[in-house]
Amino acid sequence: MKFSRRDFIATTAIGSASLALDLQGQTKPAASAAPSVHPPKKPVIICAANGYNYLERGYGVLSGGGDTLDAVMQVITGPEDDPNDDSVGLGGLPNEDCVVELDACCMHGPTRMAGSVAGVRDIKNVSLLAKTVMEHTGHVMLVGEGAQKFGFMMGFPKENLLTERSRKTWQLWRESMSNDDWWGPGLASPKFKFPDTAGNVSEYYDERIKRMEKLAERIGIEPEFRMAAIERVLNPPSGTIHCSAVNEKGEMSGATTTSGLAWKLAGRAGDSPIIGAGSYTDQDVGSAGATGNGEENIKVCGAHTIVENMRRGMSPQEAGMDVLKRIARNYEGHPEKLQYVDMSYYILRKDGAYAGVCMWSGPPEHLRRFAVNDGNGKRYENAVALYQGQSLGWPPMPGRKHLAPEQKK
Length: 409
Ligand code: ASP
Prior knowledge:
By secondary structure, the chain is an alpha+beta fold. 33% of the residues lie in helices and 18% in strands. It folds into 2 domains: 44-162 and 237-408, (Glycosyl)asparaginase (Glutamine Phosphoribosylpyrophosphate, subunit 1, domain 1, 4-Layer Sandwich), CATH 3.60.20.30; 164-181 and 192-234, no CATH class. The strands form 2 sheets. The chain has an 8-stranded mixed beta sheet. The protein has a 5-stranded mixed beta sheet with strand order 7-8-9-10-13, covered by helices on one side. Strand 9 (343-349) and strand 10 form a beta hairpin. The structure holds aspartic acid (ASP). Aspartic acid (ASP) is lined by residues 87, 238-240, 258, 260-261, 270-272, 291-294. Aspartic acid (ASP) binds at residues 87, 238-240, 258, 260-261, 270-272, 291-294.
C-alpha cells in the first residue's frame, strides 16, 4: 500500500476532544458494523482479515471431511509463509533487539488437546510447532531456546525470519524512536503519565514525519514503502492471525500465530501463545481467538471468557462485547488510555453462529473486518465495534495521528 505525505497529513486519528467525550460513556457502535444475520450452518471457518487469501484452503479441508485443526492450519500458515505480512512468521516485525520472536498456540476440540510455543526464533511455522508440541509431547507449552531445540529435532528448518524490509523498518524505529518504547511505566501503571501536549503538537508531529522521511531515504527504504514504514514506526501495527473452524459434525478447533507487538522487549510473550487468552476451544461450546494488545487480553483471559460467556447462553457477539467491556472497565479511572488499546475477537459457536468484535471500529472508510466462509463463499464482514474511531500506536506522543489508513487486520 502506498502512502503519500498529503494522505498522511490529511488523515488523523479521532480528535482527542471527541475521544474524551466518547469515552465518558457516549460511545456508540460503528454505524455500518452490523453483523450478517444468517441462520447458523456448518461447516464454518472464521479468521482475522489477513487470512482471507487462504480461507478456501481451510474450507476445502472442512468440506472434504478433514480435521478441523488441519483446516485451521491451512489458513494460518499462509500469513506465516508470506514475507509481506509483517505481523506473523517470516517478515514479522522484530523485537527491540532486531530479532524476530514468534508465539503461537492451538486447541483441538475433538481430543481436547492443546499446544503452545512462545518466544521462538528461526522457525517460521510456529503454529505447526505448537501442534507438534501438542501431538508429540506430554506438555502443553514450550518457550524460547527449548521450543526452538524441540522444533529442530522434529525437523523444522532453521530460517532467517528477518526480511530486509523489516530490518530497515526496525532501523527507522531505532534511530528515530528509541526513547519511545515498551519500557515502563506501562499504560496500566499508576505512575504512567501522558506526554506534555502544550504548544503546537501538530506542527511538532509534522516536523517529526519530515525528519523520518529523510531518515527512511538514507536507510534505503524504497520510496513506495517509505510512508508505510513510517506509519509502522509511529503506530506499530497489530496483526496476528487467529482462525477457528467447525465441521459438519460439530467438531471444532482454533489456533493463533503472531510475531507479537513490534519493538517488544526480548523474551516478551503476548496473549497469542496463552491458551485461554489468544485462543480457546471447548468442544462442547465454541471457539474464540484474539488479535490486538496481548497484555490487555491476558488480563481478561479473553478467548476463554468468551467461550464461557457462550456456555452461559450469550450469543457470540454478546460474549465478545462483554469481554471488550471488561477491558474498558480496567481503565475506568483513565478512559483516555483506551485509545491505545487495540483488540479484536473472532468467535465461533458450535452450531456455526459466529461474530467478529473489536474495541475500535477503525476509520469509516476502513472499518475493522474479519474473514469468514460458512458455505456462502468467502467474504469479509465488518466487526462490531465497542467504540467508534481508531486506536493509536504505543507509546503516546504529542500530536500522534495516523497515516492514510491501511486496512487493519
Ligand atoms: N496479540 C499480539 C500480541 O500481543 C499482537 C497482535 O495481535 O498484533 O503479541
